Amino acid sequence: MGLPQSGVRPFVPSAHILKALPVNSDEILALFKSAGALLEGHFILSSGRRSAHFLQKALVFQDPVLTEKLCAALAGRIRAELGAPDVIASPATGGIIPGYETARALGCRAIYLEREDGIFRLRRGFSIAAHETVVMVEDIITTGLSSRECLAALAGVPGRLLGAACLIDRSDGRAEIGTRLVALARIGFPDYAPDELPPELAALPAIKPGSRGMQ
């Protein structure tokens, strides 16, 4: 294998830096920083709003050990605050990995919803029985738009919703999704409408690093 390309951060497994489950927002943010997943610049979020910070969770999810421990911590919060669900349902694509790992920690099924003509739907033979309880799991919530759309789809199928959960709520509790939200971390990064940018952010070229629009 050749040397890493210039500017590419080499992958370093987390097993030696993560000794215990993370317990607070500062620890979660530190883990993202250690993985090179806290980016700074001018970013277009999936909601269309702009921010000087972006959490590139893909750089965290490439590490199976770190992902497992983060999602095990989230599973513990879900079990304590919402109860033990029969099904974890997540929006594609960002919610698939944390949804699966959280379900594995909880010992339940993991399914996901995909956009079809712009609307989230259960596909691929996924279903929820009337007697089953469900928790929706997201990766990162900013405005809560994707979560609300996913929850609207789940409201149209059988099963009983216990609530929702995410690894990081970057709205710091401000996002309204219409159900109880359990977050492993709450972080208050400022974000702005495109026509309300502070001068220092407007001076930087905008980058759209997320997956919205690629599905």
For this entry, give a set of tags.
alpha/beta, Rossmann fold, two-stranded antiparallel ribbon, 6 helices, globular, disordered N terminus
How are the secondary structure elements laid out?
Elements: H1 25-34, E1 38-44, E2 50-55, H2 58-61, H3 64-81, E3 87-91, H4 96-106, E4 109-116, E5 119-122, E6 133-141, H5 145-154, E7 160-169, E8 181-186, H6 199-202
Parallel strand pairs: 3-4, 3-6, 6-7, 7-8
Antiparallel strand pairs: 1-2, 4-5
Helix pairs in contact: 3-4
Summarize the main sheet.
6 strands, mixed
Strand content bin: 25-35%
Average pLDDT rating: 89
Terminal residue distance = 32 Å
Question: Order of SSEs, N→C?
Answer: HEEHHEHEEEHEEH
CA gyration radius, whole angstroms: 17 Å
Could you explain how this protein is built, in words?
The chain has a single domain (25-198), classed as Rossmann fold (3-Layer(aba) Sandwich), CATH 3.40.50. It is 27% helix and 26% strand. It has helices spanning 25-34, 58-61, 64-81, 96-106, 145-154, 199-202; strands spanning 38-44, 50-55, 87-91, 109-116, 119-122, 133-141, 160-169, 181-186. The strands form two sheets. The chain has a six-stranded mixed β-sheet with strand order 5-4-3-6-7-8. A two-stranded antiparallel ribbon has the order 1-2. The protein is globular, with a radius of gyration of 17 Å. Mean pLDDT is 89; it is low at 1-6.
